[in-house]
Structure formats: structure tokens, C-alpha cells
Specification:
Blueprint lengths: L1 E11 L6 E8 L8 H10 L8 E5 L2 E6 L5 E6 L4 E4 L10 E13 L2 E9 L15 H16 L3 E5 L10 E10 L4 E2 L6
Antiparallel strand pairs: 1-2, 1-3, 1-4, 2-9, 3-6, 4-5, 7-8, 7-10, 7-11, 9-10
Helix pairs in contact: 1-2
Length: 189
């Protein structure tokens, strides 16, 4: 199957280096990802994104073959542009929320799931016990549901070895936003 890769760039605020949200969509049934719909979902969630953070949505991107990850073409669409956060600029660096995408696929004896991090979020969206305020959690759940409902969202399992051809992808059937702060780390931390 072919997958359209949509890369959303996050910039500003406490973000250092490149920070992206990568979503994959079924390229066999869609001429391009639903960029305008995904952008509208993030626009509706701008109240939990710090005001000094901007998200940039593309009008084009790569199309890959899911078994190898090889580039097979490019997609071109419309509806891209930017979304600026509208919450106060205060934020905790490197922390935010995580959505788990569930599929019906089984890979190597395990259910195939994917994750998307939404980082950073405005500091005012956290409760004193380290969870999200009810209102913030509601916005995050609505955001995840809107992305999933945009159509064709998929989770890609990369090939297990470089140059391998055992990658695969499955459509997203459900999602879950944990009411717990997620953090980003790297091998350099």
C-alpha cells in the first residue's frame, strides 16, 4: 500500500531544533491527505497551544511504499498554512500530551499501534496532580477524534532492518489520549 506522509512543523516557544508531527494517510484511496481538515482540528485546539508556538501545515509531501518505506512519489493538495497557538505563552519545555492510535493489525504477534505527541502545551492546561484540566483533556480528545475522522489515517510499521521489505500499515480504528503528561526525550538526554 502507498502512504501519504504529512509532516506538521512546530516552531517557537521552548522548541529547540526541528519538532514535527508526522501523520500517515492511505495513499491508495486518497489523492492527498486531508490537510485542510487536520489543520481545522488544530485550529480548534489553538487554545491549549502556547501563543508563541506556530504549526505549519504543508500543501505537498512524500508518498511512500509501506513494505519498504521507499519514496514512490509526492502528493500535492491544498489547505495548508499556519496555526498559531492562542494560549498564554507559558509552557513546560518538552512535555505535553500523547495519543495512541489503535489498528486491527497484528505485527510479530503484537497489535500495531502508533503514537502522536502534542508538545508543547500551554502551562495553564495542567492540573496540580500532573494530569490535564478537564477542559484541556476534552480539547485533546476532540483533536484526536477529528484527526482520526478526517479519513484514511494509518499507522506505519517500518521494515525491521534497513533495506528490508517487511514493513506494513493498517488503518486507525480508535484512539486514546492518556490523562497523563507525556514527555519527549532523545538519546542525547
Amino acid at each position: 500500500m502507498h502512504l501519504h506522509r504529512m509532516v506538521i512543523d512546530w516552531s517557537g516557544g521552548s522548541i529547540v531544533g526541528r519538532s514535527v508531527t508526522v501523520l500517515h494517510f492511505d495513499g491508495s484511496s486518497l489523492p492527498a491527505p486531508p490537510v485542510a481538515t487536520v489543520k481545522a482540528a488544530f485550529t480548534a485546539a489553538a487554545a491549549i497551544i502556547p501563543g508563541n508556538v506556530t504549526l505549519t501545515f504543508p500543501n505537498s509531501g512524500d508518498t511512500i511504499e509501506d513494505t519498504t518505506g521507499a519514496l514512490t512519489g509526492v502528493w500535492s493538495g491544498s489547505g495548508g498554512g499556519t496555526v498559531a497557538g492562542s494560549a498564554p505563552a507559558a509552557q513546560a519545555a518538552g512535555v505535553g500530551a500523547c495519543t495512541t492510535w489503535s489498528t486491527g493489525g497484528i505485527v510479530n504477534g503484537r497489535k500495531l499501534r502508533g503514537r502522536t505527541f502534542f508538545v508543547p502545551l500551554a502551562a495553564g492546561g495542567y492540573d496540580s496532580d500532573g494530569t490535564f484540566l478537564t477542559s484541556t483533556y476534552g480539547v485533546l480528545t476532540t483533536l484526536a477524534n477529528a484527526i482520526m475522522a478526517s479519513g484514511g489515517l494509518a499507522v506505519w510499521h517500518r521494515p525491521t532492518i534497513p533495506g528490508g521489505a517487511d514493513g506494513t500499515s493498517y488503518g486507525v480504528l480508535s484512539n486514546r489520549v492518556r490523562d497523563k503528561v507525556a514527555f519527549l526525550s532523545s538519546r542525547r538526554d
